[in-house]
Amino acid sequence: MELVDLIEPRDVLVDCAVASKAELLRVLAGMASERTGVDSNAILGLLVNRERLGSTGMGNGVAIPHANAPELMTPLVLLVRLTHPIDFEAIDDMPVDIVFMALSPAQRGASHLNILACIARSARSEPWLNAVRQTPSSAALHKLLAGTTN
């Protein structure tokens, strides 16, 4: 599984301006709602409930908010690069500027774990993260994903 297989070009957003984790989760829920038809408040509730279990900020400026969504038939992964890093209560206490959001159908738990593992593999690479931070547009960022091998 590769990131480009998980993320469609329309699911990449560069230079998203948010001031807080709460605002980011609302933006992600809205984007996901547009793509899935699932109510944004329902998605927001799933993301917030998952964050209450512990922050999904994995370090190195990366967060992976995620949840299982019973209404979904197929997984959805979004990639958002923030204009300015925000506090995400990450494990390394560093602010976050690269966010992957993953929603998976509730009945496909193993698939959800595979998606999170795929994202985490890429997000551990400093050169790759630097390239993500320097890519000028959403289209260019998606092309970068296509060049990623796991």
Keywords summarizing the entry:
globular, 6 strands, six-stranded mixed β-sheet, alpha/beta, 150 residues
What does this structure look like?
This protein is an alpha/beta fold. Helix content is 45%, strand content 23%. The protein contains six helices and six strands. It has helices at 3-6, 21-36, 40-53, 109-123, 126-134, 138-146; strands at residues 12-16, 57-59, 62-63, 66-69, 76-86, 96-105. Strands 1, 2, 3, 4, 5 and 6 form a six-stranded mixed β-sheet that branches. Strand 2 and strand 3 form a beta hairpin. Helix 2 (21-36) packs across helix 3. The longest helix is centred in the first third of the chain and has 16 residues, at 21-36. The N and C termini lie close together (7 Å). The model has no long low-confidence stretch (mean pLDDT 91).
